[in-house]
Design goal:
Structural class: alpha/beta
Largest sheet: 6 strands, mixed
Shape: globular
Oligomer: single chain
Order of helices and strands: EEEHHHHEHEEHEHEEEEHEHEHHE
Strand content: 15-25%
Number of strands: 14
């Protein structure tokens, strides 16, 4: 790792972007994990360029619409996003020690070899400061320009993101940017850690398409979970503890071969509340200028977005079928989305097929950290008391405060910000 018949009910995919905006005041019955304030941001094509649209329900916002054409091109924005991911990869995951200064061996990858980086604060403090500056720069690049509407929008968005109130933020976009790694102005924060959007707020890449009714499972006493793993990763610290946690807290199915996974995906009803993947992810060339992300379990079977779509094509939007797991896809790069018009990557396709959300890393992730993150997330999610969005933010803050480790910001949530374990369906 460096990855019973019923009526079909359709949901408007532009919910929150058409009709009357939500108004201030009223009931807060919709509050999730203590947060009732939301921010919806839509980035979309408009003519030959890009436009951005947002509205919020925070106490400082009237619920009005805010909209502006962007002056940055999609290509530049994507290049800048790739650059930010590369900085995180090269300077955190693949950081090499060049001296004996932090009690680490020369040439070692000190930031990847341990989860607890407290003793490396001389190294991580300036690095986190730089990463926050880079995250703020990308946000500024996206909103840079001289147009009147753009200047007004920039003032609204930056002010909303920087205010003290925590938000649930949904970014609706064809392009999946590293939203959690973006930052507000670090100079206006008590510490660089607090500048990152993933630290300040709950964040998701909003799902696209229509939702539909799935075949009900009824009340269950315990969650049903699958562990889809590569046994060559069994040696990783905490990996066995994650499996033991799932065995004790859920009805667990363990799959180690791609054929077993494909057989399960071909069933009309998949009785799983959580799918956990513990394996490697890599890119495979599909043409002169395109790649598709694939994963492998313990065999040589490649599992990618197109094969998942083929296995479940006849069940899509059928109320007699069910595919609604929350997916923790712990494989390198597996949060990465394909460019519009290209073959969709695995995480995207799982969401399109009905998954209640996919949580995955956007770059390579050290194995020890990935296992520690998975244990902490699953331990909390299986209580049914917390949403995936709340757990994601909690983990960012926990790893920052307890371990001085920024890597929890690498994990990205594709849909599912309000998803929690529900044993009555």
């Amino acid at each position: 790792m460096t990855h019973e018949p019923g009526v079909e009910v359709l949901e408007n995919p532009s919910h929150g972007f058409t009709g009357v905006p939500p108004q201030r005041g009223g009931s807060q019955a919709g509050a999730v994990d203590g947060l009732s304030a939301e921010l919806h941001v839509k980035l979309y094509r408009s003519g030959t360029g890009l436009s951005i649209l947002a509205h919020g329900t925070s106490v400082h916002d009237t619920g009005a619409w805010h909209q502006a054409p962007l002056e940055v091109s999609a290509d530049e924005l994507l290049d800048r996003a790739d650059r930010l991911l590369a900085i995180w990869r090269d300077q955190v995951v693949f950081h090499r020690n060049t001296g004996s200064g932090y009690g680490q061996r020369v040439g070692g990858r000190s930031l990847a070899e341990s989860v607890d980086l407290t003793e490396l604060r001389e190294l991580t403090d300036p690095l986190v400061e730089k990463l926050a500056d880079e995250g703020f720069d990308l946000l500024q690049v996206m909103l840079d320009g001289t147009g009147y509407d753009l200047r007004r929008f920039r003032e609204f968005l930056l002010g909303t993101l920087a205010e003290g109130q925590q938000l649930r933020i949904s970014f609706d976009s064809e392009w999946q940017l590293p939203w959690t790694m973006l930052a507000v102005d670090p100079a206006e924060c008590d510490s660089p850690w607090e500048a990152f959007l993933g630290h300040r707020h709950q964040v998701e890449q909003a799902r696209t398409g229509y939702a539909w009714d799935h075949a009900p499972l009824g009340r269950r006493e315990r969650a049903t979970v699958s562990l889809n793993k590569d046994t060559t990763l069994d040696h990783v610290a905490r990996a066995h503890e994650v499996q033991k946690l799932l065995e004790e807290r859920a009805l667990l199915t363990v799959r180690t071969r791609g054929s077993e996974l494909l057989e399960a995906l071909s069933r009309s009803v998949l009785h799983e509340d959580v799918m956990y993947f513990w394996c490697h992810g890599h890119f495979v060339n599909t043409g002169a200028s395109s790649q598709v992300l694939t994963i492998r379990l313990s065999d040589a079977e490649n599992i990618d977005g197109p094969v998942v779509k083929r296995k479940r094509r006849s069940y899509l939007r059928s109320p007699q079928s069910r595919f609604k797991p929350f997916v923790l896809l712990n494989a390198c790069h597996s949060a990465k989305a394909a460019d519009p018009g290209r073959l969709k990557h695995l995480g995207q396709e799982l969401v399109d097929q009905g998954a209640d959300g996919v949580l995955a890393p956007q770059i390579e992730i050290p194995e020890a950290f990935a296992a520690e993150y998975a244990y902490a997330f699953l331990d909390r999610y299986l209580t049914g008391a917390h949403t995936a969005g709340a757990i994601g933010q909690w983990l960012v803050r926990r790893f920052a405060q307890e371990f001085h480790n920024p890597l929890a910001l690498v994990y990205s949530l594709n849909g599912g910000i309000n998803t929690r374990l529900d044993l009555i369906s």
